[in-house]
Amino acid sequence: MQAFWDFSETAPVRTESRSTPLRNPHVLPDMKITSAEFLTSATGLRSCPRGELPEFAMIGRSNVGKSSLINMLTERRGLAKVSATPGKTRLLNFFAINQGRGQWLLVDLPGYGYAKIAQEKRADFNEAVAVYIEGRENLLCVFVLIDSRLEPQRIDLDFLQWLGERDMPHALVFTKTDKQSPTATRANVDRFKQALSAWRAELPPLFLSSSETKAGRGEILRFIEQTMTA
Ligand code: GTP
Ligand code: MG
After folding, report:
1. Ligand nearest 68 Cα, by number?
2. For residue 8, what pLDDT is reported?
3. Closest to 64 (Cα-Cα) out of 119, 106, 113
4. 212 Cβ below 6 A of ligand 1
5. How are strands ordered across the β-sheet holding 139-147?
């Protein structure tokens, strides 16, 4: 008999191949955050903590709201450093979530697209981050944060293409939805989807979020739980 949380009909997230498609969960009780603590910072893959736990990482342009999203998901104000000045997060910051059984790691990555000279043919993002994403075996999914107020940005599309070429499972989180009307958000999300589908057969899972209103919190946590148990 199938338990109500059985997602056997949905594709597993990461089995033999990193290219396995990701799907949105349907029903799963909300994941409870019982603890959330800063674990360590790393300058790159070699200084990361041991890779034995399921890991999820936040990436996106500087100032898009990566650190704020971590605080919103964990309901810990000030856990990840938030700043109105772009480029605040410089290191790979690891947070241990739900210590004990069911523990997992959340990683705040440095933003891309800030204070770097534009390079012609490749996405302008941190080399250490690229090496981390390519080499971190326990990384189950990268959340790519997109500012919901903006038209599709070349740098985000380039980064998604780069992830796709590496078969790295990823999901999109459209941030700061509290800053505009749902109609305006929907229009930008649709434009983004359209831009992606120009070269992609399948779109990644997609979430709308606000660190102010906590919109998207339940869905993102459910997705994390589903990914860990797939
Ligand atoms: P870097 O570490 O510099 O790459 O930035 P980041 O992506 O971690 O962004 P951060 O979380 O520091 O947020 C940047 C600014 O946006 C801060 O002033 C936040 O308060 C604000 N912000 C982030 N998320 C939201 C949101 O959902 N709604 C609103 N209104 N403001 C937000
Ligand atoms: Mg940050």
Report:
1. 1
2. 29
3. 113
4. yes
5. 36-42, 92-97, 104-108, 55-60, 139-147, 170-175, 206-208
**Measured from the CB, is residue 111 less than 6 Å from ligand 1?**
yes
The residue whose C-alpha atom lies closest to atom 28 belonging to ligand 1 is: 176
CATH 3.40.50.300, applies to 23-229: yes
Please state the domain extents for the chain. 23-229
Q: Is the CB of 126 under 6 A from ligand 1?
A: no
Instruction: Give Cα 113 distance to the centre of its chain.
Output: 17
Tell me how far the alpha carbon of residue 41 is from its chain's centroid. Answer: 18
pLDDT tens-digit series, residues 139-177: 999 999 999 999 999 999 999 999 999 999 999 999 999
Please indicate whether residue 66, judged by its CB atom, sits closer than 6 Å to ligand 1: yes
Q: How far, in Å, from the CA of 19 to the mean position of ligand 2?
A: 28
| Tokens 């594709």 belong to residue | 11
